[in-house]
Task: inverse folding
């Protein structure tokens, strides 16, 4: 009876979770690069948005925001993009 | 002859065209970037995506930023009177009975346009750069830090600003003191100020109208 009870209990308990294999380094890098590119796109859209508002409604304040927030966000976006490209080229042993 | 047509070349018209082109190019860049963001993350790492991003990050936005700077630098020259801080000075400049140098220059159109900017900006690239940095500080004071009641010029008005226009003029050279061997070198070097003999550029008694930030008492 104890054996049948043990069998019944084992049948009810959830199966053990599959052991996750460690993510290959390449996959991790690709994921990070993808996120960096997405962040760069968002920053660039922010910079371009500020630029569009400045062009439509020029004023000293908008010009200051364009020079600081707009161009700053856009500059950061370009740096992220260049970083991803550079990393890619290094990974492929081009650079 | 003053022309006002679409391709007249008038500076305001050119700036309008530049602003329109900037907006159109910016919208194209945004459309490209949004199309990349909307796709699957794996696609963003493909060569096609990276070429699209090259156009969306470099080619199109470079044009937009350039046009944004052109429009901004042009518009900002005319923006001195936009802040009501400067209203007392603008009122004096436009007052036909005022004897200040700024009023005379403005009333007689001795400086045809961008009058404030022309006198308050040094010449050359460094002068423009310094004016832009100063302008950003003014925006900061106006909106955040506060504007003092008494506005004083930061450093003595550079003599070269006056002499840039006046020193070669016949009317300047007709005045004996301007060409006198004792005074001429002192005037040219700035040792002797134009305002020792001439009216002050602005009435010294004017007080600012403040900004949107806190009011400073000194």
Result:
């Amino acid at each position: 009876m104890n054996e049948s009870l043990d069998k019944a209990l084992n049948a009810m308990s959830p199966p053990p979770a599959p052991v996750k294999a460690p993510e290959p380094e390449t996959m991790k890098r690709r994921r990070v690069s993808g996120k960096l590119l997405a962040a760069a796109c968002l920053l660039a859209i922010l910079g371009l948005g500020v630029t569009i508002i400045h062009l439509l409604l020029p004023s000293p304040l908008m010009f200051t925001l364009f020079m600081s927030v707009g161009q700053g966000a856009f500059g950061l976006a370009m740096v992220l993009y260049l970083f991803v490209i550079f990393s890619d080229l290094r990974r492929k042993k081009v650079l | 002859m003053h022309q006002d047509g679409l391709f007249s070349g008038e500076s305001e018209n050119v700036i309008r065209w530049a602003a329109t082109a900037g907006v159109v190019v910016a919208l194209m860049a945004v459309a490209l970037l949004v199309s990349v963001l909307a796709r699957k993350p794996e696609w963003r790492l493909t060569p096609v995506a990276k070429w699209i991003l090259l156009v969306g990050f470099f080619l199109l936005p470079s044009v937009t930023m350039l046009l944004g700077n052109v429009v901004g630098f042009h518009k900002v020259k005319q923006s001195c009177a936009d802040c009501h801080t400067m209203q007392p000075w603008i009122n004096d400049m436009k007052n036909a009975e005022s004897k200040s140098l700024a009023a005379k220059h403005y009333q007689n159109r001795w400086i045809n346009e961008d009058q404030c900017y022309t006198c308050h900006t040094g010449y050359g690239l460094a002068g423009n750069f310094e004016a832009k940095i100063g302008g950003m500080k003014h925006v900061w004071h106006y909106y955040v830090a506060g504007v003092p009641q008494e506005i004083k010029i930061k450093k003595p008005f550079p003599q070269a600003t006056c002499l840039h226009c006046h020193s070669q003029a016949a009317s300047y050279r007709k005045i004996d003191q301007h060409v006198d061997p004792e005074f001429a070198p002192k005037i040219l070097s700035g040792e002797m100020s134009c305002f020792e003999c001439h009216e002050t550029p602005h009435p010294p008694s004017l007080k600012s109208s403040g900004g949107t930030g806190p009011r400073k008492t000194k």
